[in-house]
Design a protein that fits this description.
- Belongs to the phosphohexose mutase family.
- Its EC number is 5.4.2.2.
- It is a single chain.
- The chain is built from 7 helices and 9 strands, in the order ββααβαβαβββαβαβα.
- The protein has helices at 38-49, 52-59, 76-86, 116-122, 152-166, 186-194, 205-213, and strands at 24-28, 31-35, 66-69, 94-95, 130-134, 141-145, 148-150, 177-180, 198-201.
- The protein has a 5-stranded mixed sheet. A two-stranded antiparallel ribbon has the order 1-2.
Length: 216
């Protein structure tokens, strides 16, 4: 982030449009543009973070039903490859899974008001056992069970409190916890209980990225 403050000049090259729908490398004189598949890269990372065989065994149980609402946002592109193709969830467990520029005329904020499609299913007769929705860029979520819901501010605290026990990547425990200023203080309490370094940062991933780069 500090380097971006010293940028004094931007040079633009007059080149043909790059086909972003086609994977591969396109060369332009002395430089090249590579189009990658972020879904496959993300999936590979997640397999190193979570216990996929354990999750797959849960989703295969006849007494467990799951539904995820992508709210026509960016996570829709990841939902089918991960939940359906990799973890074996039923195709109809994905709601609003096609990313749309206008979010299907909705508002991709995972709460009881805007995730009404998911809420109606979860609170309906014989609703699923577990439901979740994510926001426009996939960094906040709402989790629902039978007759209850967890807000994004609380869900990050619950995940942090159980990370060492439930997430293989954190088997040695997290190095620290961080949240942005608008997020509630639930995560603060987790950091205090587990005596972990805690950081409150301005809104924006560049600030979290700085913490990760510093291995804090």
């Amino acid at each position: 982030y500090g380097n971006t403050l010293s940028i004094s000049e931007i040079k633009m090259a007059d080149i043909p449009d790059v086909d972003l729908s086609s994977l591969g490398v396109t060369n332009f004189g002395n430089f090249s543009v590579e189009v990658v598949d972020p879904v496959s890269d993300y999936l590979e990372l997640m397999e190193n973070v979570f216990d996929f065989p354990l999750i797959r065994s849960l989703l295969s149980r006849s007494d467990f039903r799951f539904v995820f609402d992508a709210m026509h946002a960016v996570t829709g592109a990841y939902a089918k490859p991960i939940f359906v193709e990799k973890l074996g969830a039923k195709p109809d467990s994905i709601l609003n899974g096609v990313p749309l520029e206008d979010f299907g005329h909705g508002h991709p904020d995972p709460n009881l008001t805007y995730a009404r499609d998911l809420v109606a299913i979860m609170y309906g007769e014989n609703g699923p056992d577990f439901g979740a929705a994510s926001d426009g860029d996939g960094d906040r979520n709402m989790i629902l069970g039978k007759g209850f819901f967890v807000t994004p501010s609380d869900s990050v605290a619950i995940i942090a409190a159980n990370a060492q026990e439930a997430i293989p990547y954190f088997k040695s425990g997290p190095k620290g916890l961080a949240r942005s200023m608008p997020t509630s203080g639930a995560l603060d309490r987790v950091a205090e209980k587990f005596k972990l370094p805690f950081f409150e940062v301005p809104t924006g991933w560049k600030f979290f990225g700085n913490l990760m780069d510093a291995e804090s």
